[in-house]
Records
---
Amino acid sequence: MIKVVVDRSHAMVNLTADGYVTEADIAAAAVDLHAAIRSLGDRMGQHVTLYDLTNVNVAAGVVLEAFSVFFTDPKYRPIWAKRVAFVTRS
């Protein structure tokens, strides 16, 4: 499961994933994430994003590659965060 929450007071978008994450989960989360970022209006692109993957079980390589779309697809460049943080179990 992946959940996206916006903290408007801090211009922060939090994405929390747990359990086994599938490509379909990531595709749905991408829609939610992009909508959350766009909801920041003028603060879009000046926001920060936290990806909390602490409770994600071991993911298949294809799932990890799907996450990379958040950072590599140039069509999303206008809404990229100015800072990104990942939290993992390591």
Note: The mean pLDDT is 85.
---
Amino acid sequence: MKRTQNTADAQSQASESSASSGRASGRKSESSNQATVGNATRQIVRVLYWLVIIAALWFAYLNINPYAQAVRYIMDGTLDRTFFGWLLQLPIVGNLLNFFALGAHWLIGLILWAVIQTIECFPIVLKHDRSFQRAIINDSDRNQQYAISEDDDPAVQWLKRWYNRFPTLTIRKARNLALFAYTADFLICLSVYPPVDGGVSQFLFVVATGQFQLINWSNVALMMTTLFAFEAIVHMLFFLAHITWYYRLSRSAA
């Protein structure tokens, strides 16, 4: 009887050991699968990141071209050709000016494009900065709001309005400046990539009369690409950055 009980205990222990080993093996297999999926996700995000960088460089070149052409048009119309031609005849100065003239419009166009794109993308950057947003929200909650009375002096009313909206003034100014930059960007692209030959008035006439076959859709596509492609890439880069951040956060929490 005692031998039978010992045999049963041994079988029970063997069964528990086998079950425990099976659970450990299952956890190891699950952990291995998660690591494999995590590595694949990380590789995909890394490849997408570099593809987006390459696309950003290509679209940057396309976006700089209208600015370079606009700068060349302005330089051709404003430079004193007589005086400039005389300078080109000088031995050393002329060589330097010739070298500079070959890429001056590209350099100036690059600077102008960089300034406008920075202003356009600045609200996007601020929107993705959590510390900046938290500081504005906290300051706005703590900020004392002054009631504006009709009996107040106009200057005091203006000061109260200014003070009441001061916490959100930065983001408001950034959005207004971005709108101004988009307007300037649109006008530059419109001059380089006109959708219809004949200027803006002809374009409005074509749209009003429904003669859409006269529209140069290639120029329209180039204009839309110049206006919005770089901002879309900035959004994509932030999206990939968020994926990378939460991926690392999930691994550290596990």
Note: Residues 20 and 56 are 53 Å apart (CA to CA).
---
Amino acid sequence: MLLLLLLQAATPAAATAPATPAPVTPWEAHDRTNSDGSASVVAAVTARDGSSRLTVKCDKSAESVVSVQFVSKQQLQDPAADGSYAGKSVGLRFDTGPAISYDWQLRGRVAYNAEPSAVTALTSFLSKAKTVQVETTTASNFAFIATFDGPKTDASIRQVLSACGYTLGEVPPPPPVRKK
């Protein structure tokens, strides 16, 4: 009997399986806590081929910032010798229209644009599109194209924008100038 108790005590308890995260509905806006403790509101979709993710994000902090982001499984940009990253042209094609290109900031596999007039234009088109195609090049300078389904309604895009004080289709006023 003592041996049985000792064997039970020495046997590790069965590990509890980690909870499976609930599947995220494409373009469903949801709150998120970032690694630095700040809060965000995010709506995103995965490319049809699974190669990347397109996101509209509101980072809520002292100065709230809305960005359109593209995260690829492939390296989009390598850092320069000094560790900096050069901007790169990224085009978004909404349905069958022409590509709308802006210079985006890049960090490895991530491209983002937080310039208010660009975000306003991109989210205005995105909120109505049935299909969105992102066009850029990889770090090896090969063409990269990813196709995404557009949101069913503009509600999630409006929710993300309003979390940062933006209104769909309106360029926000510049932040107030801080006195020195």
Note: The first strand starts at residue 30 and ends at 33.
---
Amino acid sequence: MSSPPPPGADGPSGTDQDKDLFLGLADALTVLSEHNKLRSFSLPYPREAQLALDRVTLHCVNHGWAPPKSLPELMSWCTRRPAADPVFGVPPAPMTYDARWIDPVGLVPTRTCLEVAPLGQPGRAEQDALDALAGLAHRCGSADRYRRCRKFLAHHPVVTQEDRFAPGWSAVVWNTVRTLYEPLPEGLMERKLLAVCGTCGLPARTRDDEWESGPGTWCEGEVCPHGVRFRLLRRPGHCLVLRRSLRVFLAASSRTEQEALDELVRIGADYHLLENSGIGAYRVAGSGLRTCLIQAWDRRQPALMAGRAVTLFSHTTEPVLMVVPRRAMEQNGYRALFDGALSRECRGRVILTTADELERHLRPHDPLSNEKGEGAHA
């Protein structure tokens, strides 16, 4: 039996049995992470993990490749090999080839892994975030209180004891959101410290004693610039962290959303957070401005993001501006992957953009109809 194909090799086309293999793998890695078993592979394995191992093994055997001998070996593959490697059964072009399933430093499922889901639906982690926000909205009872609580979550992925005594701390908000926080998982502690990224504010880890972002470090944002000092919290036992699903699907996009809202204020636009809009979308209007919807997301995989946008916005007739970070837009092929994954109905109406381009889209002298024509032929 041959070895697994080298990275970048083309594998035979998938069968009906393995066409959704990668979805089961993503689900299994999420479950293993929830049980803190990506570091210590103690028995019994969760059912999802055993099933993923069985399916990858069968997939490899069917294609004449040496299968993983154990779950730890499969996890090693997920750390070392690209997520789009043929051994994982990923269909053509749903994700960028440089993505991994598990981060080799953080030893947690990557944001790509957590974004993977079938046919534009939310995966396990995103669904957990959606359920948490829906429950929060129910507890809040009013749109204004929900807006304040959601903003708190987005800007406070980590809460220290000192934070709770700082000026401006709202006991009302904290008592409403407290159940969405949890004690610091052992896997996030490093030498009895919690490192927090100086750029995104999310948990971070390092392989050595370098306490600034660089090639040998990991932060949950995954794309922050190198050379920024980590914030070190020396009493991690006194810290609480937002549950990971909300850190990844809400807090990681908070800077992008805030940049978009700041730009709307600058150009004099009125906006409000829509009820029952999942992670959170805004309706924008104003004198001399178009009425449209805005969704600000920072996601690693543009094709998967486009699939979610189709699901969320296929039934609305309003233009939708999907605001992403400038550095994402500048990635080679990012826009093409997003546009290529949109349905025919959404092309030209769901538009990928950045915060600094919002005014151009919202002013009537820049007709969206021109972009619609371009998108229809993409």
Note: Residues 124-140 form the longest helix (17 residues).
